[in-house]
Amino acid sequence: MNASLVAEGHEKALSRTNFTLRSSTEVDTPDRRRAGRLVLTAETGLAPVLVEHTLEHGSGTEHANETTNTYATEETVYRQTGIGREPAYSVSERSRSPSDVFPESYAGTWFVRSHLSSAEFTPERVTNRSGVPVVVLTASLSDVNERDGRNVTSFDATATVDRRGVVRSMSVDTTFVEEGETVTYSERFAVTDVGSTTVAEPSWVDTARARDTRSESRSTPRGNVTRSLTDERLGAVVTATGRPEAIDRLRISRWDHAFRDSETVRNASVSSFVEVIGDGRVERGTVTIAYDESSVPNGNESGLAVYRYNKSLQTFFRLNSTVDATDDTVTATTSRLLEDGEYGNSSAYVVFYAQTWRDLWNGNPPSK
């Protein structure tokens, strides 16, 4: 079995859907124990994503817990950390790399690759797990092919893979002797709620925002200006901050792109498609878009949000948004109003009914 191909297929299958990942590791030696547990919930494209990680370690009767919680939108990463004390908070701008949130691959690809390559796994049977058909793969001590100089005394591993290539679960129990000491590893990994996971903003994020010390550095530099542009035809208002010459070149237009006409996008959208075009030196901005109240499913206007098109991943991602049900508008503030692209600096925005977008995307991904 080619572990790298399985791992790549696993990550690719999860990269364009929402899911929940749970993993745990326990390491026991005669005089100490360490345990780590992680729960990751992600919506399509990791925006937003929530990672809750706990590390327990100690010896004898002395134990300590370390916790790190991370919540990330497309633009911002919020962290809450604490080691048996008052939590600390941090806020930073999110880069394009998933490692901003979860090093070693958000989908658990490192876990999959390393363990599938450590032994010769054999397909054993096909079964159903929570209604999903999966192939069960197993390996034992005689199948181990990478010992890294360790004297492995026991090895028992099971993995399940669904027809989309998602490794739904892995369990690996290993005992080895290293420098005369017996070490036991027990590792578990599971992917659930594929296509149905939703991520709510945790309550501690408000505290992180309140303690964000970046506000001073984000103050408008001398010479920058803030101006608003309105396009009544599109029902859009864009407020931008940047150098005067950059703001002067800023304009709003109707977004013309084949992706806009896909069935999935049409069914989820309740507003015009707005493209903001200009100079990359525009620092930040606010986008307000009017929506068609009659197009909102069940009149649930609280389920609306502004989405921005990501050119690299060729899909839309949700921005933190505020709905004004009186004026029938949705507003999002962004630190990256314009995205660099092959044909200049621009970004496309639209209002989606979030649940419709999730349901349609997971059931019928739009063609690029």
Please tell me about this protein's structure.
With 368 residues, the chain is mainly beta. The chain is built from 6 helices and 21 strands. The protein has helices spanning 3-14, 109-116, 204-210, 244-248, 263-268, 354-363, and strands at 19-29, 32-42, 49-59, 62-72, 76-82, 88-93, 122-129, 132-140, 151-162, 167-178, 181-192, 225-231, 236-242, 251-254, 274-278, 282-290, 304-310, 315-318, 321-324, 329-334, 345-353. An 11-stranded antiparallel beta sheet has the order 6-5-4-3-2-1-11-10-9-8-7, with helices on both faces. Strands 12-13-16-20-19 form a 5-stranded antiparallel beta sheet. The chain has a 5-stranded antiparallel beta sheet with strand order 14-15-21-17-18. The protein is elongated. Mean pLDDT is 83; it is low at 215-219 and 364-368.
Helix/strand/pairing class, anyone? mainly beta
**How much of the sequence is in beta strands?**
over 45%
| H/E series | HEEEEEEHEEEEEHEEHEHEEEEEEEH
Based on Cα principal axes, name the global outline.
elongated
- Major sheet size, sense and barrel closure: 11 strands, antiparallel
- Report the top-level CATH class of the largest domain: Mainly Beta
Q: How many helical stretches?
A: 6
Radius of gyration: 24 Å
Q: Which bin fits the share of residues in helices?
A: 10-25%
Number of structural domains = 2
Report the average pLDDT across residues.
Answer: 83
Instruction: List segments where confidence is low: pLDDT < 50 over at least 5 consecutive residues.
Output: 215-219, 364-368
Please give the number of β-strands: 21
User: What order do the strands of the largest sheet run in, or round the barrel if closed?
Assistant: 6-5-4-3-2-1-11-10-9-8-7
CATH architecture of the largest domain: Clam
